[in-house]
Design goal:
Immunoglobulin-like; four-stranded antiparallel β-sheet; single chain
Length: about 475
C-alpha cells in the first residue's frame, strides 16, 4: 500500500512539473519584430519602410548623396515586447552597407533583419525627372583650357566634352582632360558655337567676324572624322549670324537650327531659322523677332547675345529665349527667360529669374550687367525642360525648370538644385556662357554648364525622387 502511494505521488508530481513547464513555455512571448526604424542624416529624419518579404527595412536617400553622411550613425529602433536586439541601437553603424540586426523573442526564436538605404521612388513613365544631382565641377586650370577665357561654348561628341574655339576635349563623365582634339579640317577660322541635337549629334557654326566672313554650319559623326558642311553663307557687312546657335530634332532627319543676328555690338532681337527635312540641305524658314526692353526699366538698353532654343523640330513649336538686359546701376534678379510660339511672340510668358530656389521662389538680385546668357531646351521622360544660365560681373546663376505642363505657368520650380554658382571674373574673353546636355539613357540626363573663365559644372537629372 505504501509503495503504491509513493508511486502515485511520484506520478502526480511528474505530471504537475510537466504541466507547469508546458504552461510556462506557452506564456513566453514569440514576437521578434522591428516595429519601427529611423535614422537622422544631416538633421533630416529618415524613416524605414518594410519590404514585402518582411525581413528588410529600407530608408530613402536622394541620388548623389554624400556617402560619408551614413557613417557612424546611431538609429532609433523599437522592437517587440520582451525581445532583445543585437547589435544594440546605441552602437554606431555605417549604413552605406546593409546592416543586420538579430531580434530574439522571449521564447528564444530569432528573426534577422537587414537595414539598407535605397533611392526614392522611380518617377513613372512620361512624368518627367526626379532628383538632379551634382557630379563634378572643374576650373579652367583643371580642364586644361585657357584661364583667361576665349572658349565660347561646349558640346558633346561621343564620350567627349568639346570646347569650341580650341577644340580641346575632356572626358564627359569625369571632366578629366584628354589628348584628343576635335577634327576641324576645312573649317575657316574656328568653330564659335556648339549645340547638340536631340539624338546627341554635335553641330556647330562659325562666326563671320573671325572666320573670313563665313557663317558655316557643320555636323560631326565622331570626334576624329572630318566635319560635314551642311550650310554656308557669306557675311561681309551688316547683321551677322553665329553669335549664339541652337538645334532641335535630328540633324540627320528632321531638325530646326537657329542663330541670333549680331549687329553693332549686340543682338538686334532677330532670330533666323533653318529647317532640315530627311537629312537633306537646310532651307531657311521664317525668322522670329523678340521684343526688346518692353518689360524693363528705362535703364534697360538692349538685349545682349540673345539665345534661342526650340522645344521640338516644328516651325510653330514653343521656343525659349534669354532676355538679359543692360541695367546700369540697377539691381536685377538675374537673367529672364521667356517662352512662346513663333506666331505669337507678343504673348511671351515670363519664366522667373535664372536662379530659382527649390521652393520655387526667384533668387538673386545682383549689381552690374546681366549679359551673355544661354538657354537650352531638352526632353526627359516625357517632359520638356529649360536649362538657363547668365552672369553678371560678379557671379553666375543657373536653374533647371520644367515646362508649364509640369508646373503651370513655368514659374521656375527647380528639379533638384545642384549647382548654383560658378566663379566668374570680369574682363575676360567674351564673358559668355553655354549649356549642353547628353542623354545617357531612359533613366538619366547629363547637364553641362560652362562659364567663360569660370569652368564647367556637370549634373545628372534622374528618374528617382528625393
Amino acid at each position: 500500500m505504501k509503495l503504491y502511494l509513493k508511486l502515485l505521488g511520484a506520478l502526480f508530481l511528474g505530471e504537475l512539473l510537466l504541466f507547469s513547464s508546458c504552461s510556462q513555455k506557452d506564456h513566453f512571448a514569440t514576437e521578434n519584430d522591428i516595429l519601427s526604424f529611423s535614422v537622422t542624416v544631416n538633421g533630416e529624419q529618415k524613416a524605414g519602410v518594410k519590404t514585402a518579404l518582411g525581413d528588410t527595412i529600407k530608408f530613402k536617400m536622394a541620388p548623389g548623396f554624400d556617402a560619408t553622411t551614413l557613417k557612424g550613425l546611431t538609429p532609433s529602433i523599437y522592437i517587440s515586447g520582451y525581445s532583445t536586439i543585437s547589435p544594440l541601437p546605441s552602437e554606431p553603424q555605417d549604413f552605406n552597407e546593409p546592416v543586420k540586426y538579430s531580434v530574439t523573442a522571449q521564447d528564444g526564436t530569432i528573426h534577422e533583419w537587414t537595414i539598407k538605404w535605397s533611392y526614392g521612388d522611380r518617377v513613372k513613365d512620361g512624368e518627367g525627372g526626379g532628383a538632379t544631382i551634382p557630379l563634378w565641377y572643374k576650373s579652367p586650370e583643371q580642364l586644361g583650357i585657357n584661364t583667361t577665357g576665349l572658349e565660347s561654348s561646349i558640346g558633346i561628341c561621343g564620350d567627349y566634352l568639346v570646347f569650341s574655339r580650341s577644340n580641346k576635349t575632356v572626358n564627359k563623365n569625369t571632366g578629366e582632360p584628354t589628348d584628343t582634339k576635335l577634327n576641324v579640317t576645312g573649317v575657316p577660322g574656328q568653330i564659335y558655337y556648339f549645340a547638340n541635337d536631340d539624338k546627341g549629334n554635335l553641330v556647330g557654326c562659325t562666326l563671320p567676324a573671325i572666320s573670313s566672313g563665313k557663317f558655316n554650319v557643320y555636323k560631326w559623326t565622331s570626334i576624329d572624322q572630318v566635319p560635314q558642311l551642311i550650310y554656308t553663307e557669306d557675311h561681309t557687312s551688316g547683321g551677322m549670324p553665329g553669335r549664339k546657335f541652337d538645334i532641335a530634332g535630328d540633324v540627320n532627319a528632321t531638325a530646326i537650327f537657329s542663330t541670333n543676328m549680331y549687329e553693332s555690338g549686340k543682338s538686334n532681337g532677330t532670330i533666323r531659322r533653318w529647317k532640315i527635312t530627311g537629312g537633306g540641305a537646310p532651307t531657311e524658314i521664317s525668322s522670329v523677332v523678340i521684343p526688346i526692353g518692353e518689360e524693363y526699366p528705362a535703364t534697360a538698353t538692349a538685349i545682349q547675345w540673345q539665345a534661342f532654343a526650340m522645344s521640338a523640330p516644328d516651325e510653330n513649336a514653343r521656343f525659349y529665349t534669354t532676355v538679359p538686359a543692360l541695367l546700369w546701376g540697377t539691381i536685377y534678379s538675374g537673367i529672364v527667360v521667356k517662352y512662346g510660339t513663333p506666331d505669337n511672340v507678343q504673348a511671351l510668358s515670363k519664366f522667373r529669374g535664372s536662379f530659382v530656389q527649390d521652393d520655387g521662389s526667384a533668387g538673386g538680385g545682383y549689381w552690374g550687367n546681366i549679359i551673355h546668357g544661354h538657354v537650352s531646351a531638352f526632353d526627359f521622360n516625357g517632359k520638356t525642360y529649360v536649362a538657363a544660365c547668365g552672369l553678371s560681373w560678379s557671379r553666375y546663376t543657373y536653374c533647371v525648370a520644367a515646362d508649364e505642363d509640369l508646373f503651370p505657368g513655368c514659374i521656375g520650380k527647380n528639379i533638384g538644385y545642384w549647382y548654383g554658382e560658378i566663379p566668374y571674373a570680369s574682363g575676360i574673353g567674351n564673358g559668355t556662357s553655354s549649356i549642353t546636355v547628353s542623354n545617357e539613357n531612359n533613366d538619366s540626363m547629363l547637364i553641362y554648364v560652362y562659364v567663360e573663365g569660370g569652368g564647367v559644372a556637370c549634373g545628372k537629372m534622374t528618374r528617382y525622387e528625393r
